[in-house]
Write a structure and sequence with these properties.
The chain has 296 residues and is α+β, with helices and mostly antiparallel strands. It has two domains: 146 residues, Triger factor/SurA peptide-binding fold; 94 residues, Chitinase A, domain 3, CATH 3.10.50. 48% of the residues lie in helices and 15% in strands. The strands form three sheets. The protein has a four-stranded antiparallel sheet, sandwiched between helices. A three-stranded antiparallel sheet has the order 2-1-9.
Length: 296
């Protein structure tokens, strides 16, 4: 974060007497409020034991929050009476957790107004064009390439002899019979779903299970497989070949991602310009940690 050097006599006096940690425009900000912010972000314990890098990034975020608070105040934005009450009920910290009286409510109010400010003043006019979507799709085809996937079902039993007997009864009987047997006999949490394991791709299941499932042909039943959970029987229900998702399938997701990226850039520019205009000054000697500039 670019900042002004706090080497002036006035700044030094402020550091020694008032213990301001930074000045933003005409406003001074102090360590007690920042410590409460750190406590809320980092939880119980001594927040100042965190690394300088972590504390520096949290200070950056705290300053950004104050930039928005000043912008919100300039616009005269306020919440309607009772508007925040449902959020207070929803996000109230559990009893016993650190929550300075009123601090988290004020932050919740500022967060709500910040979102509103961004929607009203920063996202205005932002659009994603069809050519932008098309270009992004063509340039990032690998993001939309789905690997080969498979759908399987399982029956889990605790006795090998029983598992071998059930397997013999299921050979050549098809999906419906396997599904019904899974509901009746399986000890797996998936029993209620007929042993459904979902749509999977290579590498998502334990190796011993994949070694049993992947060689199967569709509708083929595996040998009994022993794991730490017990004795498994698998049925390969279907294979889905590798495919490239069509532009129409992913268009909405691309548009949302591009819009969010444009908004992120605009918000960062807004914060940078406001900090510069307000001549942000950070008094490092009052922080209690070495402020680290963010790389990149």
């Amino acid at each position: 974060m670019k900042r002004w050097c706090a080497g002036l006599v006035l700044a030094t006096a402020a550091c020694s007497s008032e213990k301001a940690i930074f000045i933003l425009g005409q406003e001074r900000y102090f360590m007690p409020e920042f410590r409460e912010y750190l406590q809320e972000k980092l939880g119980s314990g001594e927040p100042m034991t965190s690394s300088p890098e972590v504390l520096s990034r949290l200070l950056d975020k705290y300053i950004d929050d104050q930039v928005f608070a000043q912008a919100i105040s300039e616009k005269g934005m306020k919440l309607a009476p009772g508007e925040i009450d449902p959020l207070i009920a929803r996000f109230r910290p559990p009893e016993g957790e650190y929550a300075p009286s009123g601090t988290w409510v004020a932050k919740l109010e500022n967060d709500l107004l910040t979102d509103r400010y961004i929607k009203l003043y920063l996202s205005r006019g932002l659009q994603v064009s069809e050519p932008e979507i098309d270009v992004y799709y063509r340039d990032h085809l690998e993001l939309f390439r789905m690997p080969e996937r498979f759908r399987a079902r399982e029956i889990l039993l605790h006795d090998r002899a029983e598992a071998e007997q059930v397997r013999r009864q299921l050979l050549g009987k098809g999906v419906e019979t396997f599904t019904e047997a899974a509901r009746r006999l399986s000890k797996s949490p998936s029993a209620a779903q007929g042993g459904e394991m979902g749509l999977r791709r290579r590498g998502q299941l334990p190796p011993e299970i994949e070694q049993a499932v992947l060689p199967l042909k569709p509708l083929e039943v595996s040998p009994v497989v022993h794991t730490t959970y017990g004795f498994h029987i698998f049925l390969l229900e279907a294979r889905l070949p590798e495919e490239l998702l069509s532009l129409e399938t992913v268009r909405e997701n691309i548009e949302r991602d591009l819009f969010e990226e444009k908004l992120r850039v605009r918000v960062e520019r807004f914060l940078r310009e406001r900090r510069d205009a307000a001549k942000l000054m950070i008094f490092e000697k009052n922080l209690g940690f070495e402020y680290k500039e963010e790389e990149g």
